[in-house]
Structure prediction request, 251 residues.
Amino acid sequence: MPSPRTPLVAGNWKMHGLSSALSELAVIAEGVARGAAGRASCAICPPATLLAKAVEIAGPDLAIGGQDCAPRVFGAHTGDLSAEMLNDAGARYVIVGHSERRENHGETDALVLAKAEAAFRAGLTAILCVGETRDERDAGRAFDVVGRQVEHSVPPASTADNLVLAYEPVWAIGTGLVPTVDDVAAMHQFLRERLQTLLPDGGAGVRILYGGSVKPDNAAALLAINNVDGALVGGASLKAIDFLAIAASYR
Ligand code: PEP
Prediction:
């Protein structure tokens, strides 16, 4: 059944991309502008060094996002970027709580919640990531772990406009492994119910993306699953042809 929510296909370029990569972004922007992405909204989150140029190239149809933000507005926080700075550079989205940040930078649910609130304060939409490790899934704890992450990192002020949730099983990121359709369906149904409990007014409208090794050849099957309202795409978002093919799965 097609999602009743406007799907979002967001690309996370991670720490990839010098200025030369902007030519790929221009091809994505041109494709989105001519309707190649079907009914999906599209966003690309490049490294912060490319943000301002990316916004110029992207035009009105392709949104640009940051990959992280600090919880505070400004101050003595060398190397950090506030959500306000991302907004000032023209970003419309920011990823918070990506598993690489939770793992590499020790980010807790409380910090992720503060970052999501910072995004709201600055007028950005937060793409908030949750997901279990392989060990957690094998131990039968996937629902517990993900449920707890949602409960502790989704701010009470979340709405369908300022929050997008991304379910990204850690073991599927960058590995070529993907959960079964049944496992994705069960987790997204669970997340929809959790959101509706936590956010009685807005939970039904919050988009829930699937992320983890989404490629052109598996996108149609993944994106057709109930309560999968789009995709967060890492590696395959670096190539315009692959990113557009994934987005076009919603046609
Ligand atoms: C990601 O990093 O958010 C991601 C989903 O990566 P990949 O698509 O490469 O698995």
